[in-house]
C-alpha cells in the first residue's frame, strides 16, 4: 500500500509529529509513504519520507497576500500544480490530508485533482478551518456563522490574519464548492467535540471517524533530568504550561494571573515563549524557549508537579497526553476537546483562574488511566481505515 500525506509541517510540532508517526508505522508494516510539507525543517529521521511543497519565498508571498486580501489557502498556485504532478507520479493508493492552511498550497487546485483522480482520501481535521470562511477556531467570538454562511468575520485579524480585506463570505462559498463532492473521502477527528462540529457543517456529506492523537511513549515517559537544577527550582512546586506559540487563546494571561495567586513555594514554568515574552515575565514565572526536542520536553514534564492547560481554543491537545505519559497530572479548561483526555475531576470551567488555583492547591489532580495514547495505536487505526477504504473501492 502506498500513502501520500500532506500537512503544513512534518516531524515537528503536534500535527507534524502525528504525520511522522504514521509514516514510520507504515514503513514498519511494509507499506510505502511519502509526505509533502509546506514549511519549517524536517528532523533527520523523517527526511526519507519528506517532499517539500514550494519554497520559503512562496510561503512568504502567500502569507503577505493573505494579510491584505484574506486569501489563505488560495495562493501557491505553481507550487500546488507541482505537488499534483508529484502525486500523479507517485500514484498512491491513499491520499491523507491534514492541515491545508499554513500558506503553502492552493486548496482549489488540490481538490480539483482529488475529484478527478477518484482515489480514497482521508482528511484529518485538527481545527475548524476547513468549514469556516476564515478562522481556525471560532470559540473566542462565540460565532456560529459557519453553520450557514460566514461573513463580516469577527476574527478577521486572528490566524490566518487579514489586516485589510474581509473575504470570509466568498471564502466560505469557495471552500464549500471545493471541499464537497469528493467521491470517496472520510473525515477523521481526534476528538468527539470536533467530529460533532464537522457533522453540522457543509462537510456533513462525509462519514466522520474519531481517532485520538497518539504520542511516542518510548520518549514521553517519566524521564529524570536536571531541569530543576538548571532553572534553580530545586525547592519549588512546579506548575508547567507549554505551547508552540503563546497567545491569549492559549491562556497566557490566565497563567500569569495564576502565578500571582499561588503561594511562594510554587513556581510557574512556561515553555515556548518568545524572547520578548520572556523579558516581561514576573519573578515567579520561568520562561523557556520553544523546543523541538521531544526528550527535552519529557524531562520538563517529568520535573513538573502539575501541568496546566488553560486553553480557550483546542481540538485534542497532545501536550495533555505527553504530560500524563510522563507521570504529571493535567488540569485544563472545559474547552473544545481538551477535557476528553484528562479525568473529569481535573477539568474546570473556561476562564476560571481561581478554580485552577484551588485545584492545584488541593493536590487532588490525577492522571488519566483510560486513554491509550500510544502512537502505534493511532497509526494502526489509520492503517485499518486505509484498508477499509481500499476494500470498499474494489467492491
Which structural traits does this protein have?
single chain; 395 residues; alpha/beta; Rossmann fold; 2 domains; seven-stranded parallel sheet; six-stranded parallel sheet; 13 helices; 13 strands; 14% strand
Describe the protein in words.
The protein has 13 helices and 13 strands. It has 395 residues and is α/β, with parallel strands linked by helices. The protein has 2 domains: 233 residues, Glycogen Phosphorylase B (Rossmann fold), CATH 3.40.50.2000; 136 residues, 3-Layer(aba) Sandwich (Rossmann fold). The mean pLDDT is 94. It has a 7-stranded parallel sheet, sandwiched between helices. Helix 1 packs across helix 13, helix 3 runs parallel beside helix 4 and helix 4 packs parallel to helix 5.
Fraction of helical residues: 25-40%
Principal-axis shape equals globular
Report strand order across the widest sheet: 3-2-1-4-5-6-7
Termini separation (Å)? 17 Å
Q: Which ranges are low-confidence, i.e. pLDDT below 50, for 5 or more consecutive residues?
A: none
What is the third-level CATH name, the topology of the largest domain? Rossmann fold
**Whole-number mean pLDDT:** 94
At the first level of CATH, the class of the largest domain is Alpha Beta
Number of helices: 13
Q: Tally of extended strands?
A: 13
Give the C-alpha Rg. Answer: 21 Å
The number of domains: 2
How much of the residues is beta strand, in percent?
5-15%
Amino acid at each position: 500500500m502506498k500513502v501520500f500525506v500532506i500537512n503544513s509541517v512534518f516531524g515537528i510540532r503536534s500535527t507534524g509529529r502525528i504525520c511522522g508517526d504514521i509514516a514510520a508505522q507504515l514503513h514498519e508494516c511494509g507499506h510505502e509513504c511519502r509526505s509533502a510539507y509546506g514549511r519549517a525543517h524536517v528532523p533527520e529521521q523523517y527526511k526519507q519520507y519528506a517532499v517539500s511543497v514550494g519554497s520559503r519565498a512562496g510561503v512568504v508571498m502567500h502569507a503577505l497576500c493573505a494579510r491584505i486580501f484574506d486569501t489563505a489557502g488560495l495562493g501557491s498556485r505553481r507550487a500546488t500544480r507541482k505537488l499534483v504532478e508529484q502525486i500523479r507520479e507517485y500514484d498512491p493508493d491513499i491520499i491523507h490530508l491534514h492541515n491545508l492552511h499554513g500558506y503553502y498550497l492552493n486548496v482549489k487546485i488540490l481538490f480539483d485533482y482529488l475529484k478527478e483522480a477518484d482515489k480514497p482520501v482521508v482528511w484529518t481535521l485538527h481545527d475548524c478551518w476547513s468549514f469556516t470562511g476564515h478562522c481556525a477556531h471560532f470559540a473566542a467570538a462565540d460565532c456560529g456563522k459557519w453553520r450557514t454562511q460566514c461573513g463580516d468575520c469577527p476574527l478577521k485579524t486572528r490566524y490566518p490574519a487579514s489586516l485589510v480585506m474581509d473575504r470570509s463570505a466568498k471564502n466560505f462559498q469557495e471552500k464549500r464548492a471545493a471541499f464537497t463532492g469528493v467521491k470517496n473521502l472520510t473525515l477523521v477527528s481526534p476528538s468527539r467535540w470536533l467530529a460533532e462540529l464537522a457533522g453540522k457543517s457543509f462537510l456533513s456529506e462525509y462519514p466522520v471517524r474519531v481517532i485520538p492523537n497518539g504520542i511516542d511513549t518510548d520518549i514521553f515517559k517519566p524521564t529524570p533530568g536536571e531541569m530543576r537544577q538548571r532553572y534553580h527550582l530545586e525547592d519549588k512546586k512546579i506548575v508547567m504550561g507549554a505551547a508552540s506559540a503563546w497567545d491569549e487563546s492559549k491562556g497566557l494571561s490566565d497563567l500569569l494571573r495564576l502565578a500571582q495567586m499561588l503561594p511562594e513555594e510554587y513556581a510557574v514554568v512556561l515553555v515556548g515563549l518568545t524572547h520578548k515574552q520572556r523579558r516581561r515575565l514576573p519573578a515567579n514565572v520561568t520562561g523557556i524557549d520553544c523546543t523541538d526536542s521531544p526528550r527535552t520536553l519529557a524531562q520538563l514534564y517529568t520535573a513538573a508537579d502539575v501541568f496546566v492547560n488553560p486553553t480557550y481554543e483546542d481540538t485534542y491537545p497532545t501536550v495533555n497526553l505527553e504530560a500524563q505519559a510522563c507521570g504529571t497530572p493535567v488540569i485544563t479548561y472545559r474547552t473544545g476537546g481538551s477535557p476528553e483526555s484528562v479525568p473529569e475531576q481535573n477539568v474546570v470551567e473556561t476562564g476560571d483562574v481561581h478554580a485552577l488555583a484551588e485545584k492545584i492547591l488541593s493536590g487532588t489532580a490525577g492522571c488519566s488511566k483510560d486513554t491509550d495514547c500510544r502512537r502505534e495505536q493511532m497509526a494502526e487505526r489509520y492503517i485499518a481505515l486505509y484498508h477499509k477504504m481500499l476494500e470498499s473501492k474494489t467492491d
